[in-house]
Write a structure and sequence with these properties.
The complex is a heterodimer of chains A (355) and B (336). With 355 residues, chain A is an alpha/beta fold. Chain A contains 14 helices and twelve strands. An eight-stranded mixed β-sheet of chain A has the order 6-7-8-3-9-10-12-11, with helices on both faces. Chain A has a four-stranded antiparallel β-sheet with strand order 2-1-4-5, covered by helices on one side. In chain B, the strands form two sheets. Chain B has an eight-stranded mixed β-sheet, with helices on both faces. Chain B has a four-stranded antiparallel β-sheet with strand order 2-1-4-5. In chain B, helix 4 runs parallel beside helix 6, helix 5 packs across helix 6 and helix 6 packs parallel to helix 7. The two termini of chain B are 28 Å apart. The chains are: A alpha/beta (355), B alpha/beta (336). The interface between A and B is large, with 50 and 41 residues.
Chain lengths: 355, 336
Amino acid sequence: MQQGGDIGATRPVLDVRRLKTVFNLGSAEVHAVNDVSFHVRRGELLGVVGESGSGKSVTMMSLVGLLASPPAEVRGGEVLLDGIDILKLTPRALSDIRGARIGFVFQDPMTSLNPVLTVGDQLAEPLIRHKGMDRRRAAARAVELLEMVGIPDARARMSGYPHQFSGGMRQRVMIAIALACEPDLLIADEPTTALDVTIQAQIIDLMQDLRQKLGMAVIWITHDLGVVAEIADRVMVMYGGQVVEEAPVRDLFAAPRHPYTRALLRTVPALDGARLHRLNTIEGQPPILFEAPGACSFRHRCDHADAQCACVNPDCCKVAAARDATDDPKSGHFVACHHVPALPGAEARAVAVDA
Amino acid sequence: MLDHAIPEDLVTVEGLTMHFPIHAGVFRRRVGAVRAVDGVSFSIARGETLGLVGESGCGKSTVGRALLRLCEPTAGRVVIDGEDVTTLDAARLRAKRPAMQMVFQDPQASLNPRMTLKQIIAEPLNVHTGWDTDRKLARVRELMEAVGLDRRFVNRFPHEFSGGQRQRVGIARALALNPKFVVCDEPIAALDVSIQAQIVNLLEDLQERSGLTYLFISHDLSMVRHIADRVAVMYLGRIAELSPREALFARPLHPYAEALLSAVPRADPSRAAGRRRIVLKGDVPSAARMPPGCNFSTRCPRAFDRCRTEIPRLAEVEPGRQVACHLFDPTKPAAG
């Protein structure tokens, strides 16, 4: 969208290739992430959409080694951060990268902040650890960070504890901590899901503003299609531990191609326009991934499923160029479905939106 | 209008107030109160769905609980099907319970993990009917069918089911005694998007079949627009606006309702850029320290002097639309 023009050519900050994560539960294995590949460029916001159990959070946690192991096991793939495979690093080296080059914001700020440390101490910690600042300089920088994320009376609030902050203010503190070391990449896992809509609007505005100011890449995980439509440059849709569709945000919403994405977009009732008599649903349940997918994981809930879907797992292939065309071979509209060319309406709807 | 209950209203609420006292000091003296609900009035017609929306802490769930007398309101009247439930003694309240039921937000927390579906759904029947085992089992099976659960699952436990299916169990339990009025407190908030639509469709089907009246409490405005006939928007313990669904979503009148609707992200990136979004400044004040005057005056982009001193009354400003805002005061020309 608005940032789309000049980022096309830049090299990805993060390039993930065929990542595989399995939870080994002794008696059974859960294949939570199956050959997931994606990338995010400098200054770009990649939205990751999916329902619970689709593997969106596990993907992001496993690429920086935040999952408890056992039971989690990264079975394969590469995670290139500026060209270096961070899966091969020692735990110590990886821990230096977390916080310094990759920042995190989680859904619930109350459980991710330490309740017995002041906000000021929690902000200063990464600065002392990763940037080698002394206490005084770290404290001064912490005040600046709190001001940057819009916390009024920042100097006085430094000595406050997390419970003395409201939900929205706590999430601002989390963002300030994540940005403390000016990371190249920020991973935000449902950062506004626990917040009210008017507070969510404040946080979205803040993130957009900071992203433009600091030029970092952002991966924003959410189940809210509305949030993605407002903030993302590019969107990746996950289902059953796999990427089923990936496209620039406008292309995805104007011409969704995977049957799951199309169904998902139809189930959300609109705030304006015609009101449906009955809501559209996706019948059935998401799969439980006890084995590595050898077939399309959406086939049991899909109207287009046939024999091929039951025996061959479709690859995520490029089906169209991005409409604000860049010559980057990594950009475009990617779909993992055997029936994409035959899906009715995809082209028709794209044309209608263009016109 | 609210002084004379219209007979076709199943539920009439007048001046409902719920203050939770704050105690402090060695003698636990009362030093103040959290004004969770502060003089709320509305009515719900038979077969109607009233949506109750607002942000966390605005008192919407407390209204739902006070209506069913799951907590004792501080003041106010709640007339359900001709009887004021706030004054009923224990025995008469118990006799009234079958007519008014509740569906809770979290089906995980509201179902006993050690009970089978049969035991869970039959529990209200055990308490309120003298039926024998066969008759209860027949009713349980009938209910499971009605909510779309396979009747062969009667002896399974809640953990064997997904969130959407568990919510169906919660709905079956609420319907066991053929209630007239059901309070649905965030019934879909814990569910995935693709499952939410299934549950909302089910609630609508059941309403059509049995003429149920719903109070649908939710923070999901697009879902409320789908299911509700009229919508009450609450802010900090009071109703800011109560309007028919289409009117509210097409043209919200109260500045808070306007900001709330504008803050909801739309799944349409082509229009996201041009849309005017009102981003409110600051946080919701604490219900223990309400601002004087209008409770929204601290964040309202259109507040003027009178808003900071005088509480606006909820008044009809257009046919069927009630707004509590000095900008729409019918007795004086609008200022601002």
